[in-house]
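Dear H.,

Thanks for agreeing to be a second pair of eyes. The structure we're designing against is below in C-alpha cell form, covering all 407 positions.
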C-alpha cells in the first residue's frame, strides 16, 4: 500500500471574494486521492506565489500567513506520521478524521469475540452444534480472565495484540489454569478464529499468530480390549439403568458412532444395504460427513432389545440415550463392577470400534475411516499406531511364510 503524502497550498481562483481576495487552500493527496481544506486565509492575487505556495515578500502580513501555513503543513505531516505509528491504514478517510479531531473508536477484542459468539448462537442447529457455542463461550471467558490477569483491564484494543500476547496466553493456560498442552492448543485454536475475523475486517494489520507453532502432542488413545468387551457384555447388573447404559455403550463400540450421533439416530436411518444386511445410513453431526455402517450381530441384538422401549417409540429414536454427563457417570460405575482399570467415557467406544473391533481384525484403514465419517485418513491413522497386537499377528504370519521358504 502506497503511504506517501503530498501537501500543496494554492490560491483558489473560483472562490475569489468580492474584494478580489484569493482564498488559500491546503490540498492533501494520499493514494491518488485529494482532500482540499480551507486555511481561512486570504491574499491579494498579485502577492501569492504559485510556485512557492506562499505569500511573496517579508512584510508582517506575509510572515504571519506563511508561518501559519507552515504550522498547517507540520500538522498534516504529524497526522500522517501518527497513522503510520498506530498501524492504521493510511487512507484519506483516516487522515480526514485525524484532521477534524474525530477520534476513531478502538475495536476491542472481547467485543469482537462476543459478536462472533452471538453469530454462532443464531446458527446453532444449522451450521453449528450447541456444544460448539458452549466451547466458544468458555474460550471467551478464558480470554477475559487472562486479560484481567495480565493487563489488569476489562478489555484490550485489538491493535495491541502481538506475538507476545499469544505466548503469554499459552503460559497462562499451562500455569494459572493448569491445562495440558493439547487442551491449551484447542483453546488457542478457538481464539485464532477471532483473530482471523479481525484480520479479514481490517481491524488488525499483522497476525499475532505469525511464527507461532500450534502443534499438538501425540497421545495414546485408550480403548477396550476384546476381553474387556466380552466381560462387559456378559456382566449381570442389579439395575436396569446400568444395563441400558452398558448396551448403548456397546452399540457404539460395534458401530463407531459418537455420543451425539447415537443419541440422534432415528429408525429411518436403519435400512437395508447393498448386501441385503441392515446398515446405518447417517451423517456425523460434528462434520456433516456421511457414515454408512453395516450392523454387526451384537449391535443388531441391542437394537432389537429396545425396539419397543417407550422412549424410543415416543421420540422416534433407535436407543433410549441419557445425557452425556449421566452416561459417563454410569460408565465409571460399570467399569468398577466389570473390573476395568480404565477411565471409561462414552468416547472410548468410538476408539474401541476403530481399533479392537475393526483394524485389529483386518478391516482396511480406508474402510474404517469411511465408517467413522472422517474426511481423510490422517485421523484414523492415529488409531493404527496403537495396534501392537495387530503388528504382532502380522509379523508372526511373516515369520511362518519365511520359515516355509527356508529363510
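And this is the sequence the design step returned. I haven't edited it by hand at all.
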Amino acid at each position: 500500500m502506497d503511504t506517501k503524502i503530498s501537501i500543496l497550498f494554492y490560491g483558489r481562483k473560483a472562490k475569489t471574494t468580492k474584494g478580489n481576495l484569493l482564498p488559500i487552500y491546503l490540498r492533501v493527496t494520499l493514494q491518488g486521492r485529494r482532500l482540499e481544506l480551507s486555511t481561512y486565509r486570504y491574499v491579494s492575487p498579485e502577492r501569492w506565489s504559485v510556485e512557492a505556495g506562499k505569500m511573496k515578500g517579508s512584510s508582517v502580513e506575509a510572515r504571519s500567513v506563511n508561518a501559519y501555513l507552515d504550522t498547517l503543513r507540520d500538522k498534516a505531516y504529524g497526522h500522517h506520521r501518527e497513522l503510520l505509528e498506530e498501524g492504521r491504514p493510511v487512507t484519506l478517510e483516516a487522515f480526514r478524521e485525524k484532521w477534524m479531531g474525530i477520534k476513531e473508536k478502538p475495536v476491542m477484542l472481547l467485543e469482537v469475540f462476543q459478536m462472533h459468539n452471538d453469530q454462532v448462537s443464531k446458527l446453532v442447529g444449522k451450521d453449528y452444534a450447541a456444544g460448539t457455542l458452549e466451547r466458544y463461550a468458555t474460550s471467551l471467558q478464558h480470554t477475559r480472565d487472562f486479560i484481567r490477569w495480565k493487563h489488569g483491564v476489562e478489555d484490550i484494543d485489538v491493535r495491541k495484540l502481538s506475538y507476545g500476547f499469544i505466548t503469554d496466553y499459552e503460559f497462562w493456560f499451562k500455569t494459572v489454569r493448569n491445562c495440558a498442552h493439547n487442551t491449551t492448543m484447542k483453546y488457542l485454536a478457538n481464539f485464532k478464529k477471532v483473530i482471523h475475523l479481525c484480520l479479514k475486517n481490517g481491524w488488525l494489520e499483522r497476525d499475532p499468530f505469525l511464527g507461532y507453532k500450534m502443534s499438538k502432542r501425540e497421545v495414546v488413545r485408550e480403548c477396550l480390549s476384546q476381553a474387556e468387551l466380552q466381560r462387559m457384555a456378559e456382566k449381570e447388573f442389579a439395575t436396569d439403568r446400568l444395563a441400558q447404559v452398558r448396551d448403548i455403550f456397546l452399540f457404539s463400540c460395534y458401530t463407531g458412532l459418537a455420543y451425539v450421533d447415537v443419541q440422534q439416530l432415528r429408525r429411518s436411518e436403519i435400512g437395508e444395504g447393498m448386501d441385503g444386511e441392515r446398515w446405518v445410513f447417517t451423517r456425523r453431526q460434528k462434520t456433516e460427513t456421511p457414515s454408512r455402517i453395516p450392523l454387526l450381530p451384537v449391535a443388531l441384538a441391542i437394537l432389537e432389545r429396545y425396539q419397543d422401549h417407550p422412549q424410543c417409540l415416543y421420540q422416534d429414536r433407535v436407543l433410549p440415550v441419557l445425557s452425556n454427563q449421566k452416561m459417563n457417570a454410569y460408565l465409571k460405575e460399570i467399569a468398577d463392577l466389570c473390573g476395568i482399570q480404565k477411565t471409561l467415557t462414552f468416547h472410548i467406544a468410538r476408539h474401541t470400534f476403530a481399533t479392537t473391533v475393526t483394524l485389529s481384525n483386518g478391516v482396511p484403514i480406508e474402510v474404517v475411516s469411511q465408517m467413522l465419517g472422517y474426511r481423510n485418513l490422517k485421523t484414523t491413522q492415529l488409531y493404527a499406531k496403537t495396534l501392537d497386537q495387530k503388528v504382532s499377528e502380522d509379523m508372526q504370519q511373516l515369520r511362518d511364510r519365511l520359515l516355509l521358504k527356508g529363510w
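Two observations from my side: The chain has three domains: 5-100, 109-200, 226-395. The chain has a mean pLDDT of 88.

Warmly,
E.
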